[in-house]
Amino acid sequence: MRIGIVGLPNAGKSSLFNLLTSGSVPVETYPFTTIDANHGMAALPDPSLASLGNLLSPEKLTPAMIEIIDIAGLIKDAHKGEGLGNKFLGHIRDVDLIFHVIRGFENSDVAHVSIAIDPAKDREVVLAELALADLEIVERKLDYDRKRADAKDELTLLERFRTFISQGSFSLNGSYSVEERLRLKSLGLLIPRPRVDVLNLSDKKQEILLDKAYRLSVRLEEELADFPEQEKEELRREAMLDPSGSRGLLERGLEELGLIRFYTIKGSEVRSWILPDGLNALNAAEKIHSDIADGFIKTEVLNVNELLEIGSWHEASAAGRLKVKGKDYIVQNGDVLLIKFR
Description:
20% strand; Ubiquitin-like (UB roll); 13 helices; six-stranded mixed β-sheet; 12 strands; 342 residues
């Protein structure tokens, strides 16, 4: 799974990338510091994994990881190739979720593409460019599908989508089924991809509002790096930010992607994994290693909260709390799996 960070130049995209991945890509006060996309891995904060570490004291505690891509800044008419438009749009087609960073902070030393800070207008600029790029693809695809006798369903879907975005609608919400969204995404379209708008504010209280945006201050997150978690939450609330900070943003990303966590305990390692919701134990085994999936026999299952309550796998087994499931068992969020295989 990949998350792409997009937005106008100097909105704080590379700073957010560094924050999430502990990276060190250059951050400057002028536009287009980022030309080629930067790739990094973000460790997903996981209180349950930390609690398992405290309980079991393993030699290795491995969090689930997700790929983050820092994409070059977009400007008006990017769909026509302006700025780094073609490269920008191409990179977005490679991601599963968009973190759209929108500038809300004032800083005279950091250039902005507009005269004034206007998050709502900036959001519209970026989404309009994505929509216009989609329209170009849709028109070409419609011309092709009209010549095919077997493309009636796709033709209907594309015509409906064209009308939708031509009316200035940039969020699919409940207008399309999961299958329809996946089909539109498979055609390289951008608007159908799930998106989290991230309003990047200053480290001081700001009353700027943006509907449904996640309120974050990258600068404050950097300053609070070594603070206790409770103090971090208090300071974020004082600044009118989401109290969960960057951790909450990644959690929001998992929710948008429909991902759950499961855990494995093997030898000296306790590890967290991510898996699309609705998949089964065999899919989880494949995630761990193909050999485990090929030789799958059964899995013992215990919810992580139950394990933390009981204290050990052995005690849970003795108390009859373990469930034994086959390969078709649908993995639940927070499951600890002990897979038996040949």
